[in-house]
Amino acid sequence: MFSDLFVVFNCVVTDDGVSGSDSIIPHILSSTSLAKSELVSRVPSKYLTTWGFTTTTFCGESVSRACSWTVTVERNHGQWSGPPVAAGYLFGIGVSSVSLGSREVVGMTSASHALVCVGGGSLCFAHDGRQDAVAPPLDALPVTVTIAVRPETPDVTVFTYKLASVADGRRVSLVGRRIIHDSALSVAAFPVFTVSQHVKILFPTYV
């Protein structure tokens, strides 16, 4: 269950929901699946890219305090030369109450909550497959995305997302906040990232 507090587009917001949280760089875990033979060891890198699948999901070590993380989503030039409107699910960045496998998609599971960019470049808040549009479609990359989570009570977590872009000389900014009612998130929140073949996610340092 979640509710929308505010969404602002092309505006300056005083309470950004990120100040006061610890800025972290998630340590990305090795991808696991039900089949042990599919265990894949990760090589430290600044980028997250798909492993040849339509999408690949990465999961960071869980956090249990107010934290935020920032990444940049860039075009994967080797895979995509058209505008976002021509692509399907591009990326998802968010949080999950359980560790996700590489073939699960962020925002499409019952445990994950995320800012996603889907068909037509639509920016949505997604949970369990439900997608709520939060801004006009994204028409250019790169974009910088910040996610912040803050446990408020044993069953309430505040989820804040920020997006900024100056691609093609146009400045776009977005700030949104959701109240998530999920006791599991207050215990452990896993930073999660899904990338498609069309994009790559860049961290400030090796993960």
Structure notes:
- The protein is mainly β and 207 residues long.
- The protein has one domain: Jelly Rolls (Sandwich).
- Helices cover 2% and strands 45% of the residues.
- The chain contains 1 helix and 14 strands.
- The strands form 2 sheets. Strands 1, 2, 3, 5, 10, 11, 12 and 14 form an 8-stranded mixed sheet that branches.
- A hairpin with a 3-residue loop joins strand 7 and strand 8.
- The longest helix is centred in the last third of the chain and has 5 residues.
- It starts with a strand and ends in a 5-residue tail after the last strand.
- The N terminus is likely disordered.
Note the topology.
Elements: E1 2-9, E2 22-23, E3 47-48, E4 55-59, E5 67-75, E6 91-96, E7 112-118, E8 122-127, E9 130-135, E10 143-153, E11 156-165, E12 172-181, H1 183-187, E13 190-196, E14 199-202
